[in-house]
Amino acid sequence: MLVADAAGNGTRRVLIAADKFKGSLTALEVAERVTAGLRSVVPGLQVEALPVADGGDGTVDAALAAGFERREVRVRGPVGDAVTAAFALRDGVAVVETAQASGLRRLPAGVLAPLTASTYGTGELLRAALDAGARTIVFGVGGSATTDGGAGMLCALGARLLDAGGEPVAPGGGGLAELAHADLSGLDRRLSSADLVLASDVDNPLTGPLGAPAVYGPQKGATPRDVAALDAALAHYAKVLAESGCPAARAYATSPGAGAAGGLGFGALVLGARFRPGIEVVLDVLGFAPALERASLVITGEGSLDRQTLHGKAPAGVAAAARAAGREVVAVCGRLDLPPEALARAGIRRAYPLTEVEPDVARCIADAGPLLERVAERIARDFLV
Fold this sequence. Notes:
Layout (H helix, E strand, L loop, with lengths): L1 E3 L4 E8 L10 H15 L3 E5 L9 H7 L3 E8 L5 E9 L2 E5 H5 L17 H12 L4 E5 L10 H6 L3 E3 L18 E3 L11 E6 L11 H5 L7 H20 L5 H5 L6 H11 L3 E4 H9 L1 H6 L3 E9 L8 H11 L3 E9 L3 H7 L3 E4 L7 H6 L1 H16 L2
Parallel strand pairs: 2-3, 2-12, 6-7, 7-10, 10-11, 12-13, 13-14
Antiparallel strand pairs: 1-3, 4-5, 5-6, 8-9
């Protein structure tokens, strides 16, 4: 947690709990810019910054900003090349982020691999957290490049997924079509005593019209033919797991969150994870409740405030918690696509988009930092002066 206190303004204390502006500013940079803008109008203002995330890309960074220790490990990237991934650790609690090991940004040259990308490196990252003594693992699963149902992750943790000839199936969701037998007896025994929390902002099932391949496959390069193949392969995968020592696999496949990160949520449930909305988990881990008690005004936000924001994204979670505590909430964003009544229902008094200062979206992205300071100056004049 970053606390930037100064003497002189004890009557108001602002809590900045915003997510990143994707492609422009990290959550920490958002907090720094907002703080600078507020203080240019109200010198000495007490500001507490708690960068947040919803379980996706940026969750580890949020934990590090809150005082967790950074740990790094070499793991397999989504197409097998070695990458350096980080997780966060504090007092036996680890924050592990799929995007660090198996994310879209880990694809060499950005070349998508919808049928072959694997979550093996994510399993290695979980194993490293266990090696470091983690007893609770907050597992953020957004931003993956994969649609393998967590098969690679299971293999990295000791499972064997074999074809009819007794050989390991090929990496990726496409290879699961050849799965004949699953041996889960070798899974890391430490998982049974660890508290694995699946933190996700989506509640899709594994397969079907709302499943991982249909909804998220195209974002990872899947053609309509690929989507059909992946959907069938994941359904077959769940069936084989159910017949090979994990009878609950059928139920897991239809559970909320199973379709997160290309079905990685399903694999996590097989490991014994419990599903919780990502922003709720992250706020708990970061110590949001005590920070909220100290605040009189909360500033949240993300790059785009739109309909997706209202369905489990960080600003909605922050606003809901703040409203329950009787705190006033305003939001900053790059682009605003919600009417005032929708903001009010979410608990946000007012939103301040960068596009009100600079209508050119390209310039908003390029100059997000200075523009955000100007927006924060407006917030200070409207709410703090």
